């Protein structure tokens, strides 16, 4: 008889701490392992030796444990940096949580203010332009890859990528690349390589050409 048979209910014969996970307990029904629970949940719900658990009650306890552990995993994932809804959803799905559990956790995170794709995408766009000297196209591609809705991406990029900020970022990126560009003795190849470098970073080719001309003029080229 496997453990699933003991989820049909019966008398709890033991509640033992799980050795490898001391914050969890193993519940035994009539001498055989039935399911695991978080220690705090077991205490809160009064799961103890001698109690009779029905199959419905066991299902409710397991479902609540799934919600709590999924929420804890999500908080841990969010502790390192802000995330998009899609990132959190993929993380929890990859940990094999049921769709209903994932949906509930996502809804709770939105309600608590831990998930906000609009705020995330605008902050991300401003940070990438200011700190990474990335252009609008690169920023947009990165946000789309993170799973942000395309309309939110467009609005965030439009808000964060004003012409002055974009030009400043392109100039900063160009200055860092300038010494490498000067290694190319052929003027036309030098300009082409410089422009392509900025285009790869997400800037428009016209702006890249303008930045090249400005930096070249500074050194009399």
Largest sheet: 4 strands, antiparallel
Instruction: Figure out the total of helices.
Output: 10
H/E element order:
EEEHEHHHHHHHHH
**Percent helix range:** 55-70%
For the record, the count of structural domains works out to 3
CATH level-four homologous superfamily name of the largest domain: Winged helix-like DNA-binding domain superfamily/Winged helix DNA-binding domain
Report the principal-axis shape.
rod-shaped
Mean pLDDT: 91
Rg, please? 28 Å
* Low-pLDDT residue intervals, each spanning 5 or more residues: none
Annotated CATH topology of the largest domain: Arc Repressor Mutant, subunit A
In CATH's first tier, which class of the largest domain applies? Mainly Alpha
Biggest sheet strand line-up: 3-2-1-4
CATH architecture of the largest domain: Orthogonal Bundle
What's the structural blueprint in terms of helices and strands?
Elements (H helix, E strand, L loop, with lengths): L8 E9 L6 E6 L2 E7 H6 L7 E3 H24 L6 H10 L4 H14 L4 H15 L4 H10 L4 H11 L2 H19 L5 H14 L4 H14 L3
Antiparallel strand pairs: 1-2, 1-4, 2-3
Helix pairs in contact: 2-4, 3-4, 5-6, 5-7, 6-7, 8-9, 8-10, 9-10
